[in-house]
Description:
Elements: H1 4-7, H2 24-42, H3 47-51, H4 54-66, H5 77-90, H6 93-109, H7 119-133, E1 138-141, E2 144-147, H8 151-164, H9 168-182, H10 189-208, H11 213-222, H12 229-243, H13 260-283
Antiparallel strand pairs: 1-2
Helix pairs in contact: 2-5, 2-7, 4-6, 5-6, 6-7, 8-9, 8-13, 9-10, 9-13, 10-11, 10-13
Amino acid sequence: xxxxxxxxxxxxxxxxxxxxxxxxxxxxxxxxxxxxxxxxxxxxxxxxxxxxxxxxxxxxxxxxxxxxxxxxxxxxxxxxxxxxxxxxxxxxxxxxxxxxxxxxxxxxxxxxxxxxxxxxxxxxxxxxxxxxxxxxxxxxxxxxxxxxxxxxxxxxxxxxxxxxxxxxxxxxxxxxxxxxxxxxxxxxxxxxxxxxxxxxxxxxxxxxxxxxxxxxxxxxxxxxxxxxxxxxxxxxxxxxxxxxxxxxxxxxxxxxxxxxxxxxxxxxxxxxxxxxxxxxxxxxxxx
Length: 287
């Protein structure tokens, strides 16, 4: 929400999505988020985890794996927090995002099994709120910071990951698509697209028993599911684009012709279709 001074035109509103940069205001906001979670984890309510060394284990992991420092030269909690602060405020934008992402991964990986509240989910949800507020072109999807155009896009992918549940093939493909897209140093957009399509194929096999999209949709319709003709045609054309002899699924699309926007579009679109297929398959009694 804009401030009074922004609404009155005295201070400019941010109008450009931050894709390969993080301004000072955003960096401070993300550091303040870490401070909040530091306070939560150090609060007396979670003193039991202090006794188990939970927070110390997280900071040691940050020191060892994020900052690539010698484990036996751990300088103490306070200095690691200072190093994290410097990372967020002064490092390159992608190294700053690495600090956030690794913190989320470590608090998830090291959390005691006895605690039901998932700290990492609270952290990533709060981080996504700030990404949206400061127009950062990334969102957490589980613990991966992934390029997206909006919160709605990240939620579509997350909903699909939740929906696939025990469908291991579909979940693996979607997770792999996110990983390949989220790699900030060496993204692989063509293979991310392939994995997105593979997730759809996997769900079609599970829901309908068919390996082909057209046959799968026909099976759903025969089970009583009504699919709007325009929606059906749109998906047939999309699938045809990726499946013909020069399509991405056959490796004929060169890396230079698949950019982040196209790979992201495919991930979000396929995620939405995966969620749709699963929901409708359950309604039709096929799952």
